[in-house]
Amino acid sequence: MSLFAIADLHLSLGSDKPMDVFEGWQGYTERLRKNWRSVVREEDTVVIAGDISWAMKLEDSVKDFRFIHDLPGRKLILKGNHDYWWSTRQKIEKFFDANGFKDFEIVHNSAAAVGDRAVCGTRGWLYNAESQQDKKIVSREAGRLNASLDDAKRRGLKPIVFLHYPPVYDGNECGEILDILEDNKISDCYFGHIHGSLAAKRAPVGEYRGIRMHLISCDYLGFMPVLVNE
Fold first, then answer.
1. Is the pLDDT of residue 1 over 90?
2. Average pLDDT over residues 55-81
3. According to the model, what pLDDT value does residue 229 have?
4. Using CA atoms, how far apart are residues 143 and 137, in angstroms rounded to an integer?
5. What is the rounded CA–CA span in Å between residue 195 and residue 11?
6. Helices in the chain by DSSP H: which ranges?
């Protein structure tokens, strides 16, 4: 039973927002399907760290979630900044149940067990959050990350953190999030949001403040889910 991760699928099978217009994204849904099936088995788990579907409403995301549902494995999902369809946990779970999407689980103010490990995380927010509104969002996201980690601790599981936004970018830190990672002695942090080769060079890949950082944006990974460190 292996654990994989990927972010930023940006599926638009039921909406008019094609990603194929961007360099490197041509035919990406078929590439993603083929790559996913080549490494993920039914007994495995895949974390999808946000920006899953371009749908504006939950009911418009059916085709996108069916595409993911038809791929092997259990899927753990986090919210991204473009997941406008995201609603309450109750509404999303009811939507999944109504459509027979039994292999999805939400990570939001919670942790999900994968063997003796716990998938923890939250969306995160901008590293340069200077406005009062941004600061409120950072505080809220920090609270959600703490709630997720507390859930893992209560269950005696080893936490691995997944974010949508990177906790540091171009040398600028989201201090509240990084402090939580350090205080909880998190060894590995996986994040998405960053696209393009130039932008990827500004994201931390490798050890940062004693934490191994992993960029898992779909295009950065070549549309191939990556195996999470044991």
1. no
2. 97
3. 79
4. 10
5. 15
6. 28-39, 62-69, 89-98, 132-154, 175-183, 197-200
Asked whether residue 184 carries a pLDDT value surpassing 70, the answer given is yes
The reported pTM is: 0.95
Distance CA 53, CA 8 (A): 8
CA distance 171 to 110: 29
Give the model's pLDDT for residue 221: 96
Q: Is 168 left (phi over 0), alpha (psi -120 to 50) or beta?
A: beta
DSSP 53: B
3-state secondary structure of 159: strand
Give the C-alpha separation, 100 to 66, whole Å.
9
The whole-angstrom separation of Cα 105 and Cα 92 is 10
Q: Provide, rounded to the nearest whole percent, the portion of the chain with pLDDT above 70.
A: 97
**Annotation: CATH topology of 3-227:** Purple Acid Phosphatase; chain A, domain 2 (3.60.21)
The C-alpha atoms of residue 209 and residue 31 are separated, in whole angstroms, by 35
Give the phi and the psi of residue 55 in degrees, each rounded to 5.
Answer: -55, 140
